[in-house]
Amino acid sequence: MEHVKGDVMTALRFLKTRLGCASLVILLAFTLGLVSAGLLPGRAVAADQPACSAETAASIEVKVENVRNSKGLITAVLYGDNPEAFLKRGQRLDRIRVAAKEGETLLCLQAPVEGRYSIALYHDENGNKKFDRNFLGIPSEGYGFSNNPGFRFGKPEQKETLFTIVEDGPTSLRISILYL
Q1: Which of 30, 121, 138, 166 is deepest in the core (most CB within 10 A)?
Q2: Most trustworthy range by pLDDT among 24-33, 53-62, 79-88
Q3: Residues 98, 43 contacting (CB under 8 angstroms)
Q4: b/e for 115-131, b at 16 or more Cβ within 10 A?
Q5: How many whole angstroms separate alpha carbon 142 and alpha carbon 105?
């Protein structure tokens, strides 16, 4: 992974010398905007393709079920096997946002190595990149967790959402979205 980081930094330095700082910032912002809008290939998936590449180790292919409409985004977050880090800001191992597709939406998350993990996701129908709640703190957008622990008052315990992945190809999961 370090070589990829180094290659990216080398490329950025090259672009900075050729384009200048302001142009580089505009180019990066434009590119990130296209990726987040789903107009450039990222990890968003076409309906007839697998979400994860077969040769990618420690990947997790997630089929998000019961998506009520195609508005907004599905945001999925991967957490490690640490109950204190579960659902905590800044503790995610991976996150992806893909365009919502009514019925089922496919996505792919990358784990650093084989092991035990949890996934939390939500249907960001208004596309504001936040998990919205009403004035009582009740979710106003659909949500789900790995292992589909079901409805409860409050979040599930991490042990209910843990699953194991191995590095012999993608792990497949189904997560159903719950709307209140």
Answers
A1: 121
A2: 79-88
A3: yes
A4: eebbbbbbbbbeeeeeb
A5: 13
Q: What count of other Cβ atoms lies within 10 Å of the Cβ of residue 145?
A: 21
Going by C-alpha positions, the residue among 106, 24, 26 that lies closest to residue 59 is 106
Spell out the SS3 assignment of 30-58.
HHHHHHHCCCCCCCCCCCCCCCCCCCCCC
Answer for the pair 59, 170: CB distance below 8 angstroms, yes or no.
yes
* CA atoms of 61 and 59, how far apart (whole Å): 7
Query: What's the Cα-to-Cα distance from 113 to each of 110, 140, 160, rounded to whole Å?
Result: 9, 34, 21
| Nearest CA-CA partner of 165 in 102, 94, 91, 106 | 94
Which tokens in the block code for residue 141? 């957008």
Q: For position 13, what pLDDT does the model report?
A: 58
Contact 92, 103 (CB under 8 A): no
Confidence of residue 154 (pLDDT cuts 50, 70, 90): confident
Burial class (CB in 10 A: 0-12, 13-18, 19+), 140: middle
- What is the pLDDT, as a whole number, of residue 170? 86
Token match 């508005």: residue?
Answer: 71
Compute the C-alpha angle 160/70/133, nearest 5°: 55
Q: How far does CA 144 lie from the centroid of its chain?
A: 12
